[in-house]
Amino acid sequence: MYQLIDGKAISEKVKAEIAEEVKNIVATGKRAPHLAVIIVGHDGGSETYVAHKVKSCEQVGFKSTKITFEADVTEAELLAKIDELNNDEELDGFIVQLPLPKHISEQKVIEAIDYRKDVDGFHPVNVGRLSIGLPCYVCATPSGIIELIKRYQIPTVGKNCVVIGRSNIVGKPVASLMMQKGCDATVTVCHSRTKNLKEICLQADIIIAALGQPEFLTGDMVKNGAAVIDVGTTRVPSDKTKSGFRLSGDVKFDEVAPKCSFITPVPGGVGPMTIVSLLKNTLLAAKGEIYN
Q1: Is the same domain home to 154 and 262?
Q2: DSSP structure class, residue 33
Q3: Which of 16, 92, 113, 165 could lock 210 by a disulfide, CB 3.0 to 4.6 Å apart?
Q4: 100 and 156 together in one domain
Q5: For residue 224, what are the domain limits?
Q6: Residue 118 · residue 144 · CB < 8 Å
Q7: Residue 280 lies in a domain
Q8: Is 6 a catalytic residue?
């Protein structure tokens, strides 16, 4: 019988730990950690996500600032605001919510953020430090995945871990984290050009599915006793919900779950941990523990 990994419950636990630490910081006369979020335009998914971030900040006692620009904001205007936030001494960390409108270069925006305030962990300095095992702000989703694996005491040392997906936001950084000391897994990264994907997955003790294709990982691709982490969240049409869609993961849950030792659901698995990881990075920034 598989054990369901409850990301919601773990995220609440971590939030309570952060809130306790914030209380102690404020009690010593220091200000509360401060996180800002820039959102451009009115993408429904992005607005919902930002609202969750603001609410989570309130829950742990952070100060939060939301900065909204219309979709026609110029790249120069956005970069000017980033420069202003970089130089704001009352602000510990900030993020620019992606995706951005097509006329704005995401890479230029990511690189404009001061890496010491880059609590999303996307700046090349943080990415580079992560790749060689130096302290840094780790991207939120991979950091959340590792937190879940550790809290559920899923064995990783010497285990075969297959990561499906090679994005800069999940696939590459989570592969890097899984192979580093502390996790010590043997990692294989698969992607759309991988041959014999099924055979590779059948060798895996841990599968991290992060490619954004609904129900891609099926029961015949998973060996008995594997731990499966589903990072996918794709909106698919549904006549059973009021909104007309439901969230689907990359894993065909009903087929895969019976073969697993551990598995994350969608929703309620990795998703809640992403925001918690952002809060943890902001707390680290406030304490000056990584970059003084």
Answers
A1: yes
A2: P
A3: 165
A4: no
A5: 140-271
A6: no
A7: no
A8: no
Q: What angle do CA 17, 23, 26 make, to 5 degrees?
A: 145
- Burial of 262 (C-beta count, 10 Å sphere; 0-12/13-18/19+): buried
Among candidate residues 6, 118, 120, 250, the one labeled active-site is 120
92 three-state secondary structure: coil
pLDDT of 146 over the 80 cut: yes
The reply to whether 102 belongs to the active site is no
User: Domain with 254 in it: what CATH number?
Assistant: 3.40.50.720
- Residue indicated by tokens 């904001």: 73
Instruction: Name 273's bridge partners.
Output: none
CA distances to 24, 126, 180, 201 from 187, in Å: 39, 21, 10, 11
Per the residue annotation, which of 6, 15, 81, 97 is the catalytic one? 97
- Go through the chain and tell me how many residues it has: 292
What domain count does the chain have?
Answer: 2
Q: What does the pLDDT read at residue 44?
A: 83
Mean pLDDT score across all residues of the chain: 96
Q: Give residue-wise pLDDT tens across range 93-103.
A: 999 999 999 99
Q: Residues 25-78: pLDDT tens digits?
A: 999 999 999 999 999 999 888 888 899 999 999 999 999 999 999 999 999 999
Condensed to tens digits (0 to 9), the pLDDT of residues 211-235 reads: 999 999 999 999 999 999 999 988 8
pLDDT value for 86: 98
Give the separation between CA 4 and CA 72, rounded to whole angstroms.
Answer: 43
**Active-site residue, 120 included:** yes
Q: Which residues pair with 230 in a beta bridge?
A: 209
In a domain, 2, yes or no: no
Q: Does residue 248 share a domain with residue 182?
A: yes
DSSP 228: E
